[in-house]
Amino acid sequence: MNSNNDPNYSPLRDVAQNPEATARYLADVQRVLLDIGKNLETLAHETRVHLRDTHVEGDRWYHARLRAMPVEKALGNVLKNLNNLTEGLEKSAYKRRAHDEAVLNTAKGRKEKELERQRKKNPQALRAAPNSPQQGAQSQNLGYGGPASIYDMGRESA
To answer: Which terminus, N or C, of the chain has the lesser number of Cβ atoms within 10 Å?
Structure first.
């Protein structure tokens, strides 16, 4: 399966088929996005400082801040979406691994259910334990004459 022989070859197909490879790939993507996030945070901070310091003649003290708010909000939304994206990547790696475990457990569970159905369909006859003479005599006298506790058994057998 290489790119020379198969025109439909996709390198991500191999990654998608292996949960460990998927986790590694998603971790790499997440690492890149976190680096981009650091740069975006720096950009948002520097933009905020510059925009709030930009005053026009006749401005009141809050006008620059009001003009900067939509830009700050847009960059803040980008950072929020980036954080949600990185969390989603991590969650999807866990879900991918859980999927493979569920597939393995499903096969085992079906085998166990089938065995249980077979046991219910064909119950094996229970063999009764043979009665010993002591038990027979004791079972006839089940009143107050039998041992009342474990400690009384020593007196009974003596």
So the answer is: C
In this structure, are residues 29 and 85 in contact, taking their beta carbons and an 8 Å threshold?
A: no
Give me 98's structure tokens: 């859980």
CA–CA distance, 88 with 111 (Å, rounded to integer): 34
- For residue 86, give every residue at least 6 positions away whose Cβ sits within 8 Å of its Cβ, in sequence order, or none: 30, 33, 34, 37
Backbone dihedral angles phi then psi of residue 18, each to the nearest 5 degrees: -120, 120
C-alpha span between 54 and 72 (Å, rounded): 14
Q: Could you tell me how many residues make up the chain?
A: 158
Q: Helix, strand, or coil here: 40? A: helix
Query: pTM for the complete prediction?
Result: 0.61
Six token digits for residue 139: 């079972």
What are the pLDDT digits (tens) for 60-100? 989 999 999 999 999 999 999 999 999 999 999 999 999 99
| Alpha-carbon gap, residue 132 to 5, rounded angstroms | 79
In 3-158, at which residue ranges do the beta strands (DSSP E only) sit? none
Task: Please say whether the beta carbons of 30 and 90 come within 8 A.
Answer: yes
